[in-house]
Amino acid sequence: MKHAALRIGAVLASAFLLAACRDSGPAGKAEGIVGSIGLARITVYDQRPGPDGLFSGAPYMRAVTDEGFYVMNGTGRLELHDVRKGFRSINLSPGRYVQVPPCTLLRLVGTDHLVVLSLRAGPGKEAGEEDVRLYFGQAADENPAEYERLAGVEGLEGALKRRDEAVRAYGSFSSLWSFDRVAYYKELERFVGHVLNAAAAGRTQLGDGTAGSGWTARHRARLKDLPLNRDEIPAVFSFPPEKESLGWSGLVLRVTSLDAVK
Q1: In this predicted model, what pLDDT tens digit does every residue of 55-82 receive, in sequence order?
Q2: Domains of the chain, with CATH numbers?
Q3: pLDDT digit string, tens, across residues 159-180
Q4: Helix (H, G, I), strand (E, B), or coil: what is residue 74?
Q5: 177-to-15, 57, 87, 260 alpha-carbon distances in Å
Q6: Paired strand residues for 88
Q7: How far apart are CA 13 and CA 31, in angstroms?
Q8: b/e string for 206-239 if b means 16 or more Cβ within 10 A?
Q9: Is 78 helix (H, G, I), strand (E, B) or coil?
């Protein structure tokens, strides 16, 4: 009798777990991306080069969220500008991962059909889009209507024109690194302040920042403390391709630790 009861209990437990698996979400729909991250594949524009002759995306900055880039295919580089280190360029090749904190101006440049997987911390669309500011220069930042005109696009050609407008302004800014560091840092700090103040003013568009809304504790704190000061901005981290190991399903390249980019 005791063994029979145990067998019945095991059957009921198995049935309960099976039902839980079947009822984990709406039919045909996932409850969400693992870890509540934003996930996107980016094929860097290579339909035609920008005004500087490079195949690239538009330069932009995030106010609150970190963004990681895992290189899936091709080669290129990630150009970075932050108020602590200034300008840096990181070469990209398959298997490399770079994690970029908020308040970092960045641009993806492709040299051979660069495809990356973008991973964002935050609750999806709100964190993925609302805390982003494209770089069009000071005049556009001071004129909301002009910024919206430049940022608003229709179709691929519109997206390429948006990229081109941003690259022109970015080229003028980034050239300051070579011949006028004082002006370079002044403009970068201006843009960082503008991005943070815009995010603080539109805080409700970024979500409520409460537990369960998709934000991690770190990002809820950033959202609450907007605008951030430079001491609250973390470093850029990178994981270079390393030796693969043998996993359950095949060859595994584990991202186990990250090194700060100097």
Answers
A1: 999 999 998 888 999 999 999 999 999 9
A2: 5-260 (2.60.120.10)
A3: 999 999 999 999 999 999 999 9
A4: strand
A5: 65, 20, 7, 22
A6: 80
A7: 24
A8: bbebeeebbbbeebbebbeebbbeeeebebbbbb
A9: strand
